Amino acid sequence: MKQLMVASLVAALGVAPAFALAQAQREETMLVGRVQSVDETGTSITLTDGTKLLTPPGSVLRPGALEKGTVVIAMYREENGDKILTKLSLAQSAPAPSTPSESPKWY
User: Fold this and answer.
1) Average pLDDT in the 12-20 region?
2) Quick count: other Cβ atoms within 10 Å of Cβ 79?
3) Mean pLDDT (whole number) for 7-22
4) Is residue 104 part of a domain?
5) Structure pTM?
6) What CATH number has the domain bearing residue 35?
7) How many domains does one find in the chain?
8) How many helices (H) and strands (E) in the chain?
9) Rounded Cα–Cα distance for residues 25 and 82 (Å)
10) Is the CB of residue 91 less than 8 Å from the CB of residue 72?
11) How far apart are CA 43 and CA 55, in angstroms?
12) Residue ranges making up the domain that contains 17
């Protein structure tokens, strides 16, 4: 009986980290937005919709890395009402057709 209880406890502890990881991933949110501004300290980005994203404590954005109008894909977590960045990347934009003849055809 003791062996069964110990085996159950070990099994439960083995699942706990996976559950914690799944819980943490659920709390992360993704958004796509256009940069309105980057504060001069490099610790926050404001998007055109008014969303303010903060860098994690001790992290700063490289000066000139983001310009106004750049489309970004951001992953963040809510902490005490703040949106703390966990990942940030530039969105890929498709080139616009140069002439109307290159526009997609609809059938």
Assistant:
1) 49
2) 11
3) 46
4) no
5) 0.62
6) 2.40.50.320
7) 1
8) 1, 5
9) 17
10) yes
11) 5
12) 2-90
